[in-house]
Design goal:
Helices cover 59% and strands 7% of the residues. It is α/β, with parallel strands linked by helices and 553 residues long. The strands form 2 sheets. It has a 6-stranded mixed beta sheet with strand order 3-7-8-6-4-5. A two-stranded antiparallel sheet has the order 1-2.
Length: 553
């Protein structure tokens, strides 16, 4: 049989994909664009990764990952799911424990998130997908929390992967996909309890879609079991879904039981997780107003909001299942997180995720209309928005990542802490070189002031953590870290010490009710607060005989 021949021109035509309506790009060029974007995202997430002092929460994650067998293994809902502890522990095993390696896994997860929109090219559009990747790369919130050791960037990446898996399944069902979908869902539960919100958002949408499709089928006098959603579900067969269920059970069990080292973790993951966080609803963690996420939206992400509004209009005019879901996911996530009493800046990642995908769709629409007045105006606004995003994201992540005047920075460890740490370690090295023993350090644990010192002093033998507010306590260490409220009571015992006061944590609680338009303008351009900042201070004291000849305190 003669083999059919294909001309080089035909091969070239087949290898070209539409990048909007008005231009074409070869597959190789598209892949090259993603590779370049991924490398840029990796650079932005790794460069100067250790410049910011470890936040209170970061130091907990870092320390418990370092102490295998501690709270990072035995699931505790206060610390959320254990998956990230294993990933951080792996980073330590491979590269050693440091501030850099404590943030390495989040940085890699944030980089992965930038690459994931590639797999939505068919469903979202090629330009929309790469535009979404660019937005994930430069988003102030996504870049900052990719350089921050908390679980939310993991959940965001897993959620996007789950969204991709579900909609690729609906597009072209395959028997292996239920295994991936339910395995990712288990990994998300094992990372953070916000997965219950993810399930609610997705579940409510697909139940509504099923009902709408059933009504359409009835109107067309078709059997209900012929609706597209059910057909997709049934097309892979029962065995595929049983394998999917098995993957969920296996992943969930292995992670929550610490690979069977802590069997009780299975029940804790199933029951305590939701019980604890529902019990926290009256606590109002963060103390932010109900409109807090709207403040974040307009403070940092108004360029994405403009583009997403265009994307939402496109969905309204030409609805697709994915497009309608993205609108639904943004609005419902925003509503649920607004309703929830705990409001923290890192939670903003979850409503923001579908908004960035819609923004990618909006940018693709503007580019397609670039020869029209609407398109030209849209590109101008997008360019202005891009400049603002670059200003906001570089200021937040590199210029002053520990500055509480950034609304995305929440009760941050002060940069003073790094200076004190370096001075203490320098004194300890001098003493150890001279005597062969470490300086005995006592750290005040009053009101959580043990953090981040538990992490920074993890290798210091002789370090003791004690609540110095207790009446029985009298200083006996050669170096002391004293919380400011306790320093006055201890002063009679400190005559043989030399020390100074420094800021342990800093915060700014904006007084929204008295902010003027001029206040907001100054904040947007120069991050000037319009009401006073606050701090929790500490005193560092070193005994005079130890300090003699040591680096200046």
């Amino acid at each position: 049989m003669r083999t059919p021949t294909v001309s080089p021109a035909a091969i070239e035509r087949r290898s070209r994909v539409r990048f909007g309506r008005g231009s074409a790009i070869t597959i190789d060029a598209e892949i090259a664009a993603y590779v370049g974007l991924i490398l840029l995202a990796l650079f932005l997430r790794l460069v100067l990764l250790s410049i910011k002092p470890m936040h209170h929460d970061e130091s907990q994650d870092a320390y418990f990952s370092w102490v295998f067998g501690g709270p990072g293994v035995a699931y505790d809902p206060v610390l959320h799911g254990p998956l990230r502890f294993y990933l951080m522990g792996l980073s330590y095993f491979l590269f050693g424990a440091s501030d850099f390696t404590a943030r390495l896994a989040p940085a890699l997860m944030g980089t992965t998130l930038v690459a994931l929109p590639y797999f939505l090219r068919r469903q979202l559009g090629k330009l929309a997908a790469i535009a979404a990747g660019v937005l994930f790369c430069f988003s102030p919130a996504y870049l900052y929390y990719s350089r921050f050791s908390r679980e939310d960037i993991y959940v965001a990446a897993i959620t996007l992967a789950l969204l991709i898996a579900v909609f690729r399944f609906l597009d072209r069902p395959a028997r292996w996909q239920p295994l991936l979908i339910l395995g990712l869902l288990a990994a998300s539960f094992a990372t953070k309890e916000t997965t219950y919100i993810t399930v609610f958002v997705g579940g409510s949408f697909f139940l509504g879609l099923l009902g709408w499709q059933a009504l359409q089928a009835r109107a067309a006098h078709l059997p209900v079991n012929s609706v597209p959603l059910l057909l997709s579900f049934r097309s892979v067969g029962l065995v595929a879904w049983l394998w999917g269920l098995a993957s969920f059970v296996l992943v969930f069990t292995l992670i929550f039981t610490a690979f069977f080292l802590h069997p009780a973790g299975l029940i804790d993951g199933l029951i305590r997780s939701i019980e604890y966080w529902l019990s926290q609803q009256p606590v109002h963690r963060g103390g932010q107003p109900w409109f807090y996420y709207l403040v974040l939206l307009f403070s940092y992400d108004w360029p994405e909001l403009v583009l997403a509004t265009v994307g939402a209009v496109v969905v309204w005019r030409r609805p697709t299942t994915l497009g309608v879901f993205l609108v639904w996911a943004f609005l419902v996530n925003l509503a649920v997180y607004t309703w929830a009493s705990e409001k923290m800046p890192w939670l903003w990642l979850h409503p923001l995720l579908p908004l960035l995908l819609l923004a990618g769709l909006g940018l693709q629409t503007i580019w397609d209309a670039r020869h029209q007045l609407f398109g030209r105006l849209g590109l101008l606004i997008a360019a202005v928005g891009a400049l603002y995003l670059l200003h906001a994201t570089t200021a937040l992540s590199y210029d002053h990542p520990a500055d509480p005047r950034e609304i995305l920075v929440f009760t941050q460890t002060s940069v003073d802490v790094l200076t004190v740490r370096d001075q203490l370690l320098a004194i300890d090295r001098r003493v150890f070189d001279a005597t062969g023993r470490h300086v005995r350090i006592q750290v005040d644990t009053w009101d959580g002031t043990a953090w981040p010192w538990s992490w920074y002093l993890r290798d210091q033998d002789g370090t003791v953590f004690v609540d110095m507010s207790q009446r029985y306590y009298q200083p006996s260490g050669e170096a002391l870290m004293v919380a400011s409220p306790n320093e006055q009571r201890l002063r009679p015992w400190l005559s043989g010490y030399t020390g100074y006061r420094f800021k342990l944590r800093e915060w700014w609680v904006p007084d929204y009710s008295h902010a003027t338009a001029a206040d907001w303008a100054r904040w947007l351009m120069w991050r000037e607060p319009w009401n006073p900042e606050g701090s929790l201070d500490e005193w560092v004291y070193v005994r005079n005989d130890v300090l003699a000849g040591a680096p200046r305190l």
